[in-house]
Amino acid sequence: MPLVVMCGFPASGKSKRAQEVAEFLKTKTKGNVHIVEDHPEGINRNEIYTDSHKERETRGNLKSHVQRLLTKDDIVIVDSMNYIKGFRYELYCVTKSCRTPHCVIYCVTNNVTSKSWNISRDEHLRYSDDLINELINRFECPSPNNRWDKPLITVMQDESLNCEDIATALFEQSAPPPNQSTQSQPLASTNFLYQLDKCTQDVVNAILAAQKTSVPGDHISVPDAKEHLVFTRTLTLAELQRHRRQFITYSKSHPVSDTSKIGNLFVQYLKKTLM
Prior knowledge:
Helix content is 47%, strand content 12%. With 275 residues, the chain is of the alpha/beta class. The chain folds into two domains: 3-181, Rossmann fold (3-Layer(aba) Sandwich), CATH 3.40.50; 190-274, no CATH class. The protein has a five-stranded parallel sheet, sandwiched between helices. The chain has a two-stranded antiparallel sheet with strand order 6-7. A hairpin with a 6-residue loop joins strand 6 and strand 7. The longest helix has 22 residues, at 190-211. The chain starts with a strand and ends with a helix.
């Protein structure tokens, strides 16, 4: 089910908005609605955001928590500043791998308001003056031009949250299409990997041997391949091995069922690459 990414300055009302969204979405789904926070109860947020190592660890835990909870039945709301666009992109990739829609809710406040709301908080929830200034300066605003920030729903500090727009974004929009980086790679058999390594190395060896007696224009035949290479220049071992590694990487994610075709496919790959 969909992912809702809250975004905004520290002390911009994100937690209150997240609760509003959760209450609304509970009326729209039969599954659970989870709110995931980056500062669980008992954790001092000043200690997190003044230590870069702890902050990275916290973001990693937050992402892992989202991945565990995001299922076909449950909705996850990420109640965090999410002020780094790179991290918002990581969350977007999570939705691509899960094939589920998502939206970003940007709670807009100005510096003065955020600092005022921060002071009015209980002491254990309050950011220090220096830290809140630093976090506001670090903030990378979401943009509707970025695919990982779309759909972007902006709510000003004095406005009511438009829940219907959120429902439209989550339940009527298509999930972002998966790409190769977010899909599980096909499993190849041990025999396939062995044949892939052996056949490609045989092709490299055959080319290196044939080059010693070839002149430009000669056809180089290689084992287990119907096609041949036209000799135009001497190919170095380093160059051939580089192309071999690239072909192996591609073939691992696109294995062929008939291993007898590997040699011919590698020759075709070389012909296109070396043209």
